[in-house]
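Quick check before the chapter quiz. The format below is the same one you will see on the exam, so make sure you can read both the input and the output lines.
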Amino acid sequence: MPKTNIMTIRVPEELKEQIENTALLQGVSINQFAVYAFTKELSELENSHYFKKYLHGKKKTDILKGFDEVMQKVQKREIESWDTLEGSNA
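Here is the expected output.
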């Protein structure tokens, strides 16, 4: 079992209520929900930092050219009727 630590944080009352309600709706403890939320946000921040660093100095045209090159490698396939936007509001 990984080592755990206790961390106390102060949050506004309204946020505390939102956290409690969301945890209840998800069927998890406040602690489980908090760990999930912190982990998810940290991951998104790290990914954002990675892509900002990766894309720094690159031109939009070069990025799109690279995307097009990758998409050319994707095998063509017949699109199933259930996998289309026809008849949807999207």
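If your answer matched, good. Helices lie at 13-26, 30-55, 60-72.
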